[in-house]
């Protein structure tokens, strides 16, 4: 990750409801990964969809469930 491209995005943990910030880098294109919640330690499934034509990025978070695997 290039620190120049990082954006801090507010999200709510789907497990405990804790508000936290994720650092995303939309310059890397679409991404699908997991982050650990700082409050409860559970894994958060993060999906980043980049619309390069409109220069927008959409972040979706949900619980780490079986459909991720």
Automatic annotation (TrEMBL):
It comes from the Bacteria. It comes from Idiomarina rhizosphaerae. This is CPXCG motif-containing cysteine-rich protein. InterPro entries: UCP037225, zinc_ribbon_bacterial. The lineage of its organism: Bacteria, Pseudomonadati, Pseudomonadota, Gammaproteobacteria, Alteromonadales.
């Amino acid at each position: 990750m290039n620190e120049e491209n990082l954006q801090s995005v507010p999200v709510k943990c789907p497990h405990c409801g804790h508000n936290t910030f994720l650092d995303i880098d939309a310059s890397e294109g679409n991404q699908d990964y997991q982050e650990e919640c700082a409050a409860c330690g559970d894994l958060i499934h993060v999906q980043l969809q980049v619309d390069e034509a409109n220069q927008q990025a959409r972040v979706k978070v949900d619980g780490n469930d079986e459909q991720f695997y």
